[in-house]
Amino acid sequence: xxxxxxxxxxKPVDADETGRREKxxxxxxxxxxxxxxxxxxFMDELVAAYYCALDPKTPFRVxxxxxxALAYFVLPLDFIPDFLLGFGFTDDVAVLTAxxxxxxxxxxxxxxxxxxxxxxxxx
Length: 123
Fold this sequence. Notes:
Blueprint: H1 3-10, H2 15-36, H3 43-54, H4 60-74, H5 90-103, H6 109-122
């Protein structure tokens, strides 16, 4: 997936759209994460990013970037449909990598601790 498309996915949106994305992410994240676990090599960072995105202390722009990437991740029909085994999450990984790289400094130890705990409980 090229930088132009990633930029389109991650571009800033208004508060209403951010709210819609947050609702979608809250509803679909864990189901999608379970399906994608073997295709996403950085699941621990992905889950930490999820907790960072839902943290009201995280700056709005950072939350917006993460929610955009996470909303793209939970959509089953995106640039490469997720049901294409082995390839379906390739575009999602590219978008998530770009978003997490851009905001990594905002993922706090508390987000990583929550992620580790959630992943341990999911096993």
